[in-house]
Amino acid sequence: MIHNVYILKKTGESLIHGYYGSIEVDETLITGFLSAISSFAEEIGAESVESLVMKNMKFVYAMDTSLPDDPLIFAVSVDREEDEQKIKEILIEIKEIFVGKHKSDLEDWTGDIKAFAPFYNDLDVIVWEYVVNKYLKAFHKLVTNKEQTIDEVISLIYHLFSPKIAQKLIDQILEKIVQ
Asked: pTM score, two decimals?
């Protein structure tokens, strides 16, 4: 599951934080940590970080250096079991769309993150496509399997996902059942 998506300046300033899963952490703490790990990797000659694996989760990284004086870090926190290659593909898509739409905002950036707010819609679509492709069939099976009550499935969905994603997923499942 994708829990969080972070886009930040290498200095640690957060530009975007999308919350989608059940793990929510202080944004300032995480962006500072992600930035520090990236700087540490460069300092020891490792060039960049690709992923950081913990016991039950991992962070997958991508860098953007299209503005060499002001590189960006793109990171996604996911469950440890997630397919890292698939997550990297999603991260690259996020990076390409964000930089494509906001390069001029980044070049002329005054410190106001409101310029990047429209990107949340794009981010929601990217993450939603991933959620649908990965989970919709499984949850649909649970709902139509008479062993699980709808309340149990709904409770499970709200446990796994942020309220925004959970409600959207429940609406999609109910729509499929009604058909």
From this structure: 0.80
Strand, coil or helix: what is 52?
Answer: strand
Tell me: the pLDDT tens digits for 34-82? 888 888 888 888 777 888 888 888 999 998 988 878 889 999 999 899 9
Tokens of 122: 């794009």
End-to-end CA distance of the chain: 27
User: Whole domain around residue 9: which residue ranges?
Assistant: 2-111
Q: Which two tokens stand for residue 5?
A: 């998506």
Do the Cβ atoms of 94 and 123 come closer than 8 Å?
Answer: yes
Same domain, yes or no: 67 and 139: no
**CB-based contacts of 34: which residues, under 8 Å, 6+ apart?**
6, 8, 12, 59, 61, 73, 75
